[in-house]
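dude i think i finally got it to work??
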Amino acid sequence: MPCLSLSDASLAFGHVPLLDHADFQLDRGERVALIGRNGTGKSSLLAALAGQGGLDDGQVWQEPGLRIGYVPQEPPFDPELTVFAAVVAGMGEVSALLAEYHSVSHALAEAGADQEALLSRIQQLQGELDARQAWSFESAAERAIQRFSLDADALVGSLSGGQKKRLALAQALALTPEVLLLDEPTNHLDIAAIEWLEDLLVASSMALIFITHDRRFLERVATRIVELDRGRLQSFAGNFQDYQTRKEAMLHNEALNHARFDKFLAQEEVWIRQGIKARRTRNEGRVLRLEHLRRERAARRERQGKVDMALDAGMRSGKLVVALENVGKRYGDTVVVRDFSCRIQRGDKIGIIGPNGAGKTTLLRLILGELAPDSGKVHRGTRIEAAYFDQFRSQLDENATLSAVISPGSDFVEIGQQRKHVISYLGDFLFAPQRARSLVSSLSGGERNRLLLARLFARPANVLVLDEPTNDLDIETLELLEELLQDYSGTLFLVSHDRAFIDNVVTQTLAPEGDGHWREYAGGYRDWADYQASRRKEDVVSASRNREPRPVDAGKAARPKAAAGKLSWKEERELEALPQRIADLESEQKVLGERLADPALYQSSSTAVAQISSRLNEIDDELMILLERWEALEAARAG
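look at this
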């Protein structure tokens, strides 16, 4: 049963149709991933489905009374609002009443407040909220704020990027939506928060449409994939791998059909130009068919080309790039890096992972020499030429033209031994020639990322530093960037929350262990996660084997063992104690799970996150051991 649909939808920006008589249907319980190249119109489509963007033609149908939550890519919040006011802002006419009620309630608790006037106003507000039966809205808002561990009284302007993303999610979920629309929900979230969001969405009964470039998130959450390609929507049942297989076959068949069509058209064009001989034998039907073929060829929309990236490692650096010996760094009472040592050599590809606030940027700046350590030594190699990709794109001058960003003061760039005109080079990154003189301020997020990559790769560099390079890039460009970095002969430092990207690129991973400790691991994110799980399991098994038996009094200890096939007295006591031990662990597991589901935890303490995650894994292993032991003892008692 559909709850939302799109019929014969058309939408164009300029002469380019983003939607070309497109149709779509969302059923209850579905989780649909909307994918496609940058600039194809995915965000415009999502806004139209949310009722916040118009169509040139066609219709959006919503089930009557359907509650829809919508989180755009860059949520437009008023920085002067409090978090509570921002969350209730989407609740219609009661939003202003709820925001004022919340504000007056807090004002009553302040010293020197005009109690009589405030009490009078709060009684009026209570009456109006009662009349509108709006108390359920307040409860929903408070639950959403608590779920995302936001400060209800904080100003929106004081929030970080990750907190604003959580605020947008809280605003959408406070409506208790039946359909949730998410545009790039993983941007600005760290890996732990992304995995938490995955769990939330998978466990929910809401119907979902989301746009993402995160392939691991897509693989975990989506039950169906819909691709927007050249104005049309194509549905693919199954997971992302199934989509890739089917899409490759479709593109192959399309190329064959186009080649056959073009060959036939070329033959007909030769025939029509044969002059007098052709006119004598000219068939009027054949002429009409040729005109139809010409119109069909002119109307064909070619698939957007791929980014053509090349990276010049330049002069080889020395074999040693950097060596850290017992390096330490702290800010006030917080130790960010403690007694860390490692050696990074030419050709290493280093991934740096960890929750927001763990110190990834600090560690990176220590390695690059941009920050002096409080203790220890940093030895840097020779002939280092570094290039840096900034996740905030602060290197881009909003008022500069694209060509000036790539090659200031010159019309040419040199990549390796090849000299290219700047307009041709911009074309390699899918910027049309007429846009070379456009300002940076006119670019979308994905276009800015492509421009920054173009600027980065326009100069030789034997050390490449990429800080969150995957934000806003489409999946196809991501995969091309992966291939480029895999073949790169220089040294790479990569900070990213994209787990698949890390796994496909890096050879080593630096990860926080808590309390300022960092450790180097072989492989990517999955290798690190598997190692952590294996280590926790070994610790639990070892602790279980070494656990001291509980003391018993001498009288009880002297009791005889049970007959063969029955339990001993000690085993009986153990069996009796097992249900309570399991219940205690499950209670602890529930409490820790709720703490780990609290987004504020990731902003306040990376150590606490690591400790809670470690303890939860220990509990899982202990529960498995206890349940297996319980089953074995019950079987033995049964004879």
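The first helix runs from residue 42 to 49.
im so relieved honestly
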